[in-house]
């Protein structure tokens, strides 16, 4: 069974319009011509019936008149508009219903979210109230315990208050005695202050006298300081002369030191020469001893050697005399 609004006549009109344009009346072309409405199966069935029931065309027949073609075209357009109008209305109604349902769904979602939020708030408030109730119960027990303690403390305080009243009366009596003692102390202090003031005036007079004496001593000290300044200037002048003399003496001492260095250098050279001569003398003495031993050994063998020994001894004495001469002259130079 075909859908509402799509029948064989409508399909035939659409097929005729497509053929009039010189196009092939396929299922999709017919469905597009009908405004994308109707089932393809239904359109295919109607097209098949129209193809089977159509008479074969005579090639020699005259072409369709233009007026008939225009009439068929207008008829097809009107049928298309009439067929499209309920579809558009249904589509518009569907869109309105869909939008209304979406708005209702959004509203329901918002209401649900608000209800969940209220539920969370109420749950939190309930938990808070439960916690506050528990705290209140704890506070009530604490306050009851504290109230009992305060009652006991109040009783103790009343006892202490009575003791304090007794102490206050005792303190008032002591205060009266202290006031009398204070008055007596003030009178004694007044007398002592008058005595100290008199003694202070006497000390001030003595200090003034000592101050005048100190001022006179200061004048004397000032004269002495002036004389000391003069003596100091004189000593400075003498010191400058002494410094000049000391500078001259230092120059002379410097020259003397240089001269002493030269003399020490000469003495060093003389000592070196004396050491050399002493070494030569020692060698000569050794040689003399050796020769003497040889002479003693050979004296019995060769008398002729005695003469030579005598000459050698004479030479040795002469060398000794020559070596001793610088040693004797050295102390004189020193």
Helices and strands, in order, run as: HHHHH
Please give the count of helices: 5
Shape, please? flat
Q: Measured on Cα atoms, how large is the radius of gyration?
A: 80 Å
Biggest sheet record = none
Broad structural category = mainly alpha
Helix content: over 70%
In short:
With 334 residues, the protein is mostly helical.
Describe the protein.
It is built from five helices and no strands. It has helices at 8-20, 27-33, 40-53, 66-298, 304-333. The protein is flat, with a radius of gyration of 80 Å. Among the domains are: 8-54 and 63-113, no CATH class; 288-333. The chain is an all-alpha fold and 334 residues long.
List the topology elements.
Layout: H1 8-20, H2 27-33, H3 40-53, H4 66-298, H5 304-333
Helix pairs in contact: 1-2, 1-3, 1-4, 2-3, 4-5
């Amino acid at each position: 069974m075909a859908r509402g609004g799509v029948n064989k006549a409508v399909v035939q009109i659409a097929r005729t319009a497509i053929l009039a344009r010189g196009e092939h009346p396929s299922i999709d072309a017919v469905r597009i011509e009908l405004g994308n409405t109707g089932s393809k199966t239904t359109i295919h069935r109607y097209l098949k019936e129209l193809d089977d029931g159509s008479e074969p065309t005579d090639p020699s027949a005259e072409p369709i008149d233009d007026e008939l073609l225009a009439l068929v075209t207008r008829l097809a357009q009107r049928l298309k508009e009439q067929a499209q109008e309920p579809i558009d209305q249904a589509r518009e109604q569907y869109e309105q219903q869909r939008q209304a349902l979406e708005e209702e769904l959004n509203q329901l979602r918002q209401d649900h979210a608000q209800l969940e939020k209220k539920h969370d708030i109420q749950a939190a408030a309930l938990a808070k109230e439960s916690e506050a109730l528990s705290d209140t119960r704890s506070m009530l027990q604490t306050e009851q315990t504290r109230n009992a303690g305060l009652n006991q403390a109040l009783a103790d305080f009343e006892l202490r208050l009575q003791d304090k009243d007794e102490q206050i009366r005792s303190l008032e009596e002591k205060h009266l005695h202290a006031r009398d003692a204070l008055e007596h102390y003030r009178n004694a202090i007044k007398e002592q202050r008058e005595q100290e003031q008199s003694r202070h005036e006497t000390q001030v007079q003595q200090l003034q006298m000592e101050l005048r004496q100190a001022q006179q001593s200061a004048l004397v000290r000032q004269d002495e300081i002036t004389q000391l300044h003069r003596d100091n200037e004189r000593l400075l002048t003498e010191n400058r002369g002494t410094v000049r003399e000391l500078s001259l003496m230092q120059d002379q001492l410097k020259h003397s030191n240089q001269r002493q260095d030269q003399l020490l250098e000469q003495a060093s050279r003389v000592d070196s020469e004396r050491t050399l001569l002493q070494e030569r003398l020692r060698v000569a003495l050794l040689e003399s001893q050796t020769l003497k031993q040889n002479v003693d050994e050979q004296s019995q063998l060769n008398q002729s050697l005695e003469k030579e020994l005598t000459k050698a001894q004479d030479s040795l004495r002469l060398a000794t005399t020559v070596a001793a001469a610088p040693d004797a002259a050295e102390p004189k130079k020193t």
